[in-house]
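About this split. The held-out portion is used to measure sequence recovery: a designer receives only the structure tokens and must propose an amino acid at every position. Recovery is the fraction of positions where the proposal matches the reference. Here is one held-out target exactly as it appears in the evaluation file.
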């Protein structure tokens, strides 16, 4: 499927990995792909910027959508004090014992920065992007297809992040903007 991705769409997927690692998230979801769409010059970026989205506002929303902040809140509800756990770990193992980039074993030994897997929303976005491209009779998968696939799930983490960042962009409006951008660029 990735052979059908345009260069900007591939760059978006690669950048989503970087975003997930920087935010110390355990997987790549639609919200990481959304933030990466804003970072990649493309049709989707122009549509998102035109709708009022910007990286500076969206990044903290995506960062806090999963990972340490969200995990701490969930653990607090279970009666677990994350700050106390961190303090005890640092007493036993030294300062910053719980910090650091996720590491995975490499095939030939050693460790290196891990490749983050796509979570269900990330996988669904990639699959739906193919479906969107086929429905528009496009022989490629571009950033515009990724954006429309994201917007097909109004209760998904990416659309929730958009709303939290003050951006109201629905699928129908985005489709019109995408088609106008495609006509303009051809």
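Reference sequence for scoring:
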């Amino acid at each position: 499927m990735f052979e059908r991705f345009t260069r900007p769409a591939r760059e978006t997927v690669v950048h989503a990995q970087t975003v997930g690692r920087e935010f110390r998230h355990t997987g790549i979801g639609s919200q990481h792909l959304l933030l990466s769409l804003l970072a990649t010059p493309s049709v989707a970026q122009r549509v998102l910027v035109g709708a009022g989205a910007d990286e500076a506002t969206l990044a903290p929303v995506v960062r806090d959508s999963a990972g340490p902040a969200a995990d701490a809140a969930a653990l607090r509800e279970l009666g677990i004090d994350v700050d106390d756990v961190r303090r005890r770990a640092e007493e036993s193992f030294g300062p910053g014992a719980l910090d650091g980039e996720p590491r995975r074993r490499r095939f030939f030994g050693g460790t290196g920065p891990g490749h983050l897997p796509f979570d269900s929303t990330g996988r669904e976005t990639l699959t739906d992007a193919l479906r969107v491209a086929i429905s528009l009779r496009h022989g490629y998968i571009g950033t515009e297809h990724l954006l429309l696939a994201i917007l097909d799930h109004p209760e998904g983490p990416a659309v929730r992040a958009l709303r939290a960042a003050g951006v109201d962009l629905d699928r129908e409006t985005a489709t019109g903007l995408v088609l106008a951008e495609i006509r303009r660029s051809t």
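Annotator remark: Confidence is low (pLDDT under 50) at residues 101-112.
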